[in-house]
Amino acid sequence: MTLPNERETSRRSGQSLLIRFTPFIAGALVLCILPALVPTYVRNIWTKFVVFALFASSYDLIYGHTGLLSLGHAAYFGAGGYTVAALMLHYNIDSLWVGLPLGVLVAAFISAIFGFMALRVSGMYFLLVTFAFGELLYSVTWNWKWLSTPGMQGISGLLRPNLGIPGFRWNTINFYYFVLIIFLLCFYLVYRIMNSPFGHALRGIRENEPRMQSLGYNTWLYKYLAFIITGAFAGVAGTLFAYYNRFISPTHVGVVTSFMPMIMVIIGGSGTLLGPVIGALIIVFVEYFSSLFTPERWPLILGALFVAAIMYARGGVGIHLTKLWRKLNYRYGSSKG
Amino acid sequence: MELVLANLVNGISFGMILFLIASGLSIVMGLMGIINLAHGALYMVGAYAGWTIAVQWKMNFALAVIVGGIAGALVGLLIERGFLRRLYKQPNEQVLLTFGFVYILSNLVIWIWGGHRRLQFTAPILYGSMEIAGMPFAKDRLAIIAIGAIIAIALWYLQDKTRIGAIVRAGMDDKEMTTGLGINLDFIFTVVFLFAAFIAGCAGVIGAQLIGAYSWLGTDILLYSLIVVVVGGLGSVQGSLLGGLVIGLIDTFGKALFPQFAMFTIYLAMIVILLVKPSGLLGRKS
After folding, report:
1. Can you tell me the ipTM of this complex?
2. Is B226 among the domain residues?
3. Predicted TM-score (pTM) of this structure
4. Spatial contact of A161 and A240, defined as CB atoms under 8 Å apart
5. What would be the CATH architecture of the domain defined by A4-336?
C-alpha cells in the first residue's frame, strides 16, 4: 500500500514519478527490444510467455485481489480460444476485429453464468463449484463434435488473425509485437482497475467482507463483477493463445490449464502487479527446458515446484522484488522529491 | 425391465464407491476446513497398489483391498505430517498444496506402473452372476454394494454413537471450544486424515472392479466426489451416502438413456442443487 503523503510527493515531482515507474519502464523495454534480437524459437516461447502473463494477471484479479480461489479459470481462457477456432472452422472468419471481441464476449458471458451460480456459495464450496464448472466445459469440448476438426480432439490448422490491412504478412516478429500491444493494453486496464475505487473495494472484501457490507457495499455485486472482468481478460488471453498455438484442444479448457495461472501467481506473488508476469516468465521457461530434457517428467517438476513455492516462497518472487523496490524508492525516490 | 435392473445395480454400486471417497473428503473438509484435492489421487494410488497385489502377484483380493488402503494412508500421512501441518490455518495455501500433489502422484504412478490403462479386476470368487428371484445379478456389483453398505453402517455408528465421533462432530462445530475441553484436536486431525486416506485407498481397489485404473483417474474421481459433496451436503455420513447414490444412479442411467449427454447429467444435478439448496441435501447447518 502506498501511503497518502508518499503519493502526494510523487505527484508533486515528475522526477520521482519517473523513479516510481522505473520497474514498469524497464520491464516494458525488456519486453519490447529483447525479443527482436533473439533466435526465432526463443521468440516463440517469449510470445507464449506474454500470452500466459496476461492469463496469470487476469487470475490475480480474482485470486490475489478479491481473495476468491477459483479452480476453473481455464474455462474462460478456453472459451475465448474455442470461439476464435470455431469461427475459423465453420464460418471461415479469421478477422481479428470479429474474433477477438467475440471471444472476449463469449468468455465474459460464460463467466457471468458460472459466476452467478458459484457465488451463491462461499469459502471451500466456491472452490469446488468453480472446479466442477471448469470440468463441465472440458467435457463439452470433449464430447461436442461441432467443436473439433473431424477425426481429432480439438481444432487444428488455425490461422493468424486477419488484420484487414492489405499486403500485410505475419512473421514471428510482428506477431510478437501484436501480442505485446494487446498485452500492454490489458495490463494497463488491469492496473487501472486495481487502483480504482472498485479495486480498493475488492481488496477490502478480501480482507474483511462483513466490514465492507456494514459500510454499505453490495459485496456480492462487487465479487460478481470481478469474476466477469477476470473471465473477460482470460478470454483475451485465450484468443491470443489460439492465434499463437494454431491448435486448441479440450486440455486448454480443463484442470491442467487451470493449474497454470495458479502456479504462476503463487510463484510470482499474488496481489502484486508484476508478480504474475514474473511467475509466467519462470514457468514458461522452466517448461521449455524441462520439455527439452525430460518431457514425460514435466508434471512432476511442475507439481514439485508448486509445492516448494507454497512451502518456502509464499508471497512469491514478486513481493520480494516489490519490497526491495519500495526500499530503494523510499531511500532515493522520496528524498529527491 | 432387466436393463433397468442391471443399471440400477450398476448405479448403486458406483454410488457406493462415490460414497466411500466422498465421505473421507467431506469429513476432512468439515473438520479441517480444507478440500483435499489429492483425495482422488489417494484413491488412484490405492487402485494401483491393489492391482499389483491382486493381478501382478495373484494374491488374495481382500489383502489387495487392505494393501490399497495402507498405500493410501501412507501417502496421506506424508502429505499431512510433512506438508499440510506446516501451513496451519492457511486454508487457501493448504488446498493449493494438495493440488500440487495431484500432479506429483499422477506422474509418479506413470513412472512406477507405466502409462497404459489397467482393466477392471476382481476376486475369482466374484466372477459371473447369481440369480435372485429369477434375475441374474453380477456378483462383483453385489459385493461392492454389500461392502459399501457395511462401511456406511460402520461409519454412521462411529460418527453418531462413539466418543471419537462425538469429538469429531464437536470439532466441526466449534474448534476452539473443543480444544478448550482438553481435546488434542491436532492429533484428531491427523487420525481423521489418515482414516480418510485409508478409506480412499480401499475404495480404489474396490472401485477398480468397476473402473480399473489409469493415470488421470485421480482428477476424474475427484470431480465426481466433489459433486457428491455439493449434492449430499458437507460433514455427515448420511449426506455423503445420499449424494453418492443420487449421483451414481443419475450418472449410470444418464449414460444408458442419453449417451451423448451422459457427462452433463451430473452437472445438471449439481446446478439444480446449487440454485435450490446451496447447503446440499443433508448438509450440516452452520
Report:
1. 0.81
2. no
3. 0.85
4. no
5. Orthogonal Bundle (1.10)
